[in-house]
What we know:
The structure is a single chain. This protein is of the alpha/beta class and 332 residues long. It is 44% helix and 21% strand. A hairpin with a 2-residue loop joins strand 11 (295-298) and strand 12 (301-304). 30% of the residues are buried.
Amino acid sequence: xxxxxxxxxxxxxxNTFISNFYSILKxxxxxMASDFFKKIFKEGNEIYYMQRGDFTFRFQNNNEEYVxxxxxxxxxxxxxxxxxxxxxxxxxxxxxxxxxxxxxxxxEQILLDEFHTGKYSxxxxxxxxxxxxxxxxxxxxxxxxxxxxxxAMYPTTGNKMTYEYVDPEGLRTFVQKMLDFDxxxxxxxxxxxxxxxxxxxxxxxxDDIKKINEKSIDLFLFVQAMTGKRLGLNKIAAALVxxxxxxxxxxxxxxxxxxxxxxxxxxALEEFKRYCKNDVRMTMLIFLYFMHFKKLFIEGDExxxxxxxxxxxxxxxxxxxxxxxxxxxFEH
Length: 332
């Protein structure tokens, strides 16, 4: 999954695309971008660059267009004939430092600035909330999965983001709030996991789950519906909005979990809370990205959608609600 930028967007969104490209230019001992493209495409129409075993850049020559993909930044740029000339000038100015490129804002800042104007305070004049839960390690049977904690985020007066912490004692009140909520409930894999586990933990009914699911916007299901792929929260957030989980591996999560459950470690609890709250923020930023750009780019394909698609296809029915198997839980 990539962010596809025009050259104008490349100048206004914070990134290191040009500097990453320039580092490859130097390795190939080329003076200008045009010399570089002539050199590499003599060897084929698709060229890969790697560093320490990881892909860093990919170049494609598709007839009259060049496709440039920065694998570090997950940015894709397509150059037609005019674009090639404009890109040549951008690189030249970068090299000669005649024009200092000033990256104005990160994608995250662009989205938050728009949010603070009130542009995304509602969806079709209806309120929305974003939430995520943490549970114990038993997810083979959702009726027996133990709820640990949750965070919810609400757009509030003054176009601010207000977070609510939910502990086990407050879960019943929180579930009732979701049942009564007159708006959309946004989550990631929430229809098949968060909603069900939350309701089961208070002894709620299948009808309660259905009511919450009917007003849910599940970004996992939306991406799956649009791309045909099951992608984790961390992978999507890193590619689209350059943010990641606060814990980097399942092993790290498991150690923290044991400290909290087995040793009643309050510092571990606080780390769990930060982890969950950050997941809510990641989910919110992805949601804002979808509302702002209304596009996805994956494996060379551009997928354009509407706000109606985002709302409706994110509730797509699934036959197997346990589709997120245990080894992928950390991506949840």
